[in-house]
Amino acid sequence: MGRGVSSGGGQSSLGYLFGSGEPSKSAGDNPNPAPTPAAAAVDNSKQIPAGIPGNTTNNYFRADGQNTGNFITYLLWWRTNVALDHFYPFIIAVSASGKTNGVDSDLNPACKVSSFHSIADTDGASILYQQQLAPDPKLHSHLLRVPLPSSPSSLLSLFLEICNRFPFSWRPPHRFHLFLLSHHPSFSLSPIAASKLLDVFGKSRNIDLLWSHLRLMADRRLLSVSSLRIAARSLADANEISKCVLLFRLDPQFLTAGALNSVVDVICARKHVQIAHAVVSKLRDSIPADADTYKLLIIGFCRAGDLSQAAKLWNLMIDEDMSPDLDAYNEILITLFKSNATQEAMRFFKSMRKNLGIASYRVMIDWTCKVRRVSYAYMVFAEMIKRGIGFDNSVLGHLIYGLLGKKRVNEAYKVFKEAEGVDLSICHGMMKGLLSIRRPGAATEVFREMVARGVEPNMHTYIMLLQGHMGKRGRKGKEVAVNFDSIFVGGVVKAGNAAEVGKYVERAARGGGGDVPRFDYNKFLHLFSNEEGVKMFEEVGRVLKKVGMVDIGDVLLVYGERMATRERRRRALWGSQVGVCQLELVDSST
């Protein structure tokens, strides 16, 4: 740590913080000085120590490297005097509400703040982390020094807080659980706390401890379907098929198709559809698969790219006289198009067209327009109208995109103008089609009209327009001072993420050439989604319009205005929450 530098009067910043709370005195100081009126009006506990920004007597954040100790001093001072002032009203209000993480608490507000303070500020959680490998007597001796609440509900809230602090480390929550069981006989896990601890074991990949905890939960009747989902997720990640099957043997209440479908759903969501299929096959005698089970497996195999296995399950459903779900049908249709099997997709659509609704027709029109089969998309659209199936603007957006892809611009504009209500989907179809034929100026005109009609753009709108104007990998602009490198690459560098755009910096230094990855416009917009970014977008937008880049300037200006509105709305919401918390604090104190 850097050396401490004392301010006038012999006061040491480190002595101020780590001493008795008063400034240290030199040998020549008067031990009992008379306080001046100005000094009497200042709260000594909240004075800014020497070397802290805001204390103009002595600023130690110098450019000579002698500032390490003072930076740590600043952090300690901020934690002691600033952070607690800002967050204590919120802590008291939350404690006064009587619930923490869904668990009732019967402590009064003063005791709740004391228990939170004892854990957070006397480093109870740090003890669990630092002593997690220590023997039980040593760990317990440290924890016994922390003033813990005595109420079982408060201990349960505290245990949930520890689990939230260590979501990927099993030792601190597990050892704290054992400590509570040994030193607080009244403590017992609730279903929520038991599932939370189970989630920690699963995320830390401790399968043995997870399984033993599952058996303990089964003995104490704490298991639920959500517990099975948590356990199945981790067991599938570890390729524990036999244990996934044994989950349903822990309690007879889980030998149902609903529990099976819930577990299959979470396993397929983790992209382990082969494991889900094996579990269903092994449980066939105990839990027969129903239509929802087949639907989940078919969708899982389609998203994994295994279309042949999905087709086998589809045929098996037909053989068992089950009507296939439309979601499974749509997923097979999408997978056929993604596999470039356009003719097979069309034949599959014809075989099922009598039982289809608007969702399936929308999928068909969308993908036929993407593969430039606009005439077939119009035939499907005409069939929709003939059958009396209503269409929405998303269908029109797909048709507009397909028409523009074939450069039938007049027809696309005709459909756009004849639409009853312009929404985001139809505007996106128009802009995406215009950008595909390299007409970013026309796409920006659609963007202006969309904003004028009160349609709120989303992040995809801005990213799509930025890519259309500047390119996915950036284009060198005519103006040296205002171009892709100066705005976007320079903005990422200014935000402190220079390593992410190193290839672009090298390309700019060489004057062009070289292979660079696709620029992440989403990350760029996220970095400046704050008050500083609002001013930056306004300034850059005005400069771009001055040099003739009106379209891209308007896009950034609109984003800056929308971002300012969101920022003010966010601050207003936070201010209202703080006001409610302070009101609850006053009510609880009275």
TrEMBL record:
<feature type="repeat" description="PPR">
    <location>
        <begin position="290"/>
        <end position="324"/>
    </location>
</feature>
<dbReference type="Pfam" id="PF01535">
    <property type="entry name" value="PPR"/>
</dbReference>
<keyword id="KW-0677">Repeat</keyword>
<dbReference type="InterPro" id="IPR050667">
    <property type="entry name" value="PPR-containing_protein"/>
</dbReference>
<dbReference type="Pfam" id="PF12854">
    <property type="entry name" value="PPR_1"/>
</dbReference>
<feature type="compositionally biased region" description="Gly residues">
    <location>
        <begin position="1"/>
        <end position="12"/>
    </location>
</feature>
<dbReference type="Pfam" id="PF13041">
    <property type="entry name" value="PPR_2"/>
</dbReference>
<feature type="region of interest" description="Disordered">
    <location>
        <begin position="1"/>
        <end position="40"/>
    </location>
</feature>
<dbReference type="InterPro" id="IPR002885">
    <property type="entry name" value="PPR_rpt"/>
</dbReference>
<protein>
    <submittedName>
        <fullName>Pentatricopeptide repeat-containing protein</fullName>
    </submittedName>
</protein>
<feature type="repeat" description="PPR">
    <location>
        <begin position="423"/>
        <end position="457"/>
    </location>
</feature>
<dbReference type="InterPro" id="IPR011990">
    <property type="entry name" value="TPR-like_helical_dom_sf"/>
</dbReference>
<comment type="similarity">
    <text>Belongs to the PPR family. P subfamily.</text>
</comment>
